[in-house]
Amino acid sequence: MLQKVLAAIVIEEWAKHYGAEPFTSKRQPLIEVSTLAREMSNRTLAWLQSEPPAAYHEMAFTLARIHGECTNLLHSFAFDCKIPWIEIPTLGTEIDLTGSKEGGFSLASAEAAVERDYTKLRDRLGKAKKRELAVIAEKRKTVISSIEWYKEIKTQHDIRVCAAFAAAYVALKNTPDKVSPIVKGVMNGIKVRPVSQLIVSFSNSCPSRTRRTWIFKRAQQLPSHPSLTSARFMASPNLRIRS
Question: How far apart are CA 62 and CA 60, in angstroms?
Fold first, then answer.
């Protein structure tokens, strides 16, 4: 994820720098004079038009932790409830982010461990070992929370990469056949960006001191919220912020 976002930032800054240089009316767009810019434009558009990846390599450590939690959960039935080890399901030892490797541990494996495998072992005990089952049930809740957090991280990564790629594509001033993927990426970036950052970024983009003063006054009128405290200060017409 980080590599993709950084690459998109570099492309966007390259395009902005090219556009900021003095030019004549006959100057061609960057994608017309640079094969690399054209290739990057095509690649960003292809990513925006396709489905997001199953996972990002930064998520491997989180999935490895979930693997340990799932293993501990299932082993509890053997340690605490004395179920024979031969009946305890075994989880793959290799972390598989994409879920494409046979015998690997993926998100689907984790979900199966807390649902199918857990239910099967619990039902085998019947009404016995109620105290032990209560402890195991709490462990299961922890694992489920970890799985939900993993999914949330994936969603956040998708939004960040999508927004970064959309910004890079727009900066290259290319025109796609369908604008919906680009618009979606830009809007996602706006929705997840903190209000304080939006105020500062827009304030710094206004060269006029009068406009900066107007932004500062409007920021003061916003509802009281912890995230806006710094925004009101940073939007001050007497302060220049590097966004």
Answer: 5
